[in-house]
Amino acid sequence: MSLDSVFNGTWSDDHRSGVVAVVGRPNVGKSTLINAILGQKIAIATPKPQTTRRIQLGIYSTEKMQVLFTDTPGLHAPRNTLGEYMMTVAEQTLSDADVILWILDVSEPPQKPDEYIAETIQSARGDTPVVLVFNKIDLAGDNPDFSPFEALLDAQKTVRVSALKEMGVDTLINEIADYIPEGPRYYPLDQVSDMNMRFIAGETVREKIILNTEKEVPHSVAVEIADYKDLDHVTEIYAVIYVEKDSQKGIIIGKGGKMIKKIGSSARQDLEKMIGRQVHLDLRVKVLKNWRSDERFMRKVGYILPKANED
Questions:
Q1: Which of 24, 111, 126, 248 is the most exposed place for a label (fewest CB within 10 A)?
Q2: Using N-to-C axis directions, what is the helix angle for 169-177 and 30-38, rounded to 10°?
Q3: How many CB atoms lie within 10 A of CB 111?
């Protein structure tokens, strides 16, 4: 990851800064952990896999150190253009990082995808240190055996946490600090994400859809913020929810519009907490078949970044 474009000129000989790649299979708690580290919500987190679609920076800052946590999509075998792009970006993040955090769910034995992740990290890491993060430690029982997880990959350190209960977070930060090199502060002390509120608003709406729908609907949903206006006393947000089938549109709207009202109300409450002011949220649902294989559309909604030679 090149950070030259965001360097704000803040430098001292004893300041450290670096990039930490947070990886793991889907639904192990990567986004929840980053939110816990930052002390506030910047990434959507749900109990369902493949929630994260785009690299998002979580910016942890102190007077002496700035750590840029990259919340990567869960590593898995891709099934469409979106999935292929997500895996390419996640794997590139590994080779660019100063530290790799591999998040493992220790409430259950290692899974087959964990072997794939171990191979991916090993091939991309070079001499980058790896920290195994044993998450969901509160669900692991009284005498958990971590040896099957430790056998997956030769790592520099292991740390036990519960991202959901914010246990072990301070210890994790202290362990990471040992590997962060000297460098400048790239972002202001009070900035916690590189994403603007327009993008975060769309992700918040998508989170509520994922939490309130079942089967194939969560993976078939994209959200575009058609308009975002900060007025004198209210922020007006107009969002379009895209699905791939007419049946999915009916599920999201719900009988008598009940479901979309529930989604909108929940998203609006979260956004008001983030923004600190009243929010008017307007939701519309449209069908766009096979959008997950439409690269142009996915760039439009921000799930795939423009290529370097494109405007």
A1: 126
A2: 90
A3: 13
Helix or strand or coil: residue 25?
Answer: coil
Residue listed under structure tokens 């400048």: 184
Contacts of 196 (CB under 8 A, 6+ apart): none
State both tokens at 285: 């649902």
CB neighbour burial string for 177-205, b if at least 16 within 10 angstroms, e if fewer: eebbeebbbbbeeeebbbbebebbbbbbb
**pTM for the whole structure:** 0.66
What is the greatest pairwise CA distance in the chain? 62
In whole angstroms, give the CA distance from residue 259 to residue 212.
8
Low-confidence ranges of the chain (pLDDT < 70): 1-13, 43-55, 73-91, 215-216, 218, 303-311
**Nearest in space to 48 (alpha carbons), one of 24, 23, 28:** 28
Listed residue (86, 10, 13) closest to 50, CA to CA:
86
Integer Rg of the chain from CA: 20
Residue-level pLDDT at 242: 93
Question: What's the pLDDT at 251?
Answer: 92
Tokens representing residue 193 in the block = 């994400």
| List of E strands, the chain | 16-23, 56-61, 65-71, 99-105, 130-135, 157-160, 222-230, 234-243, 278-287
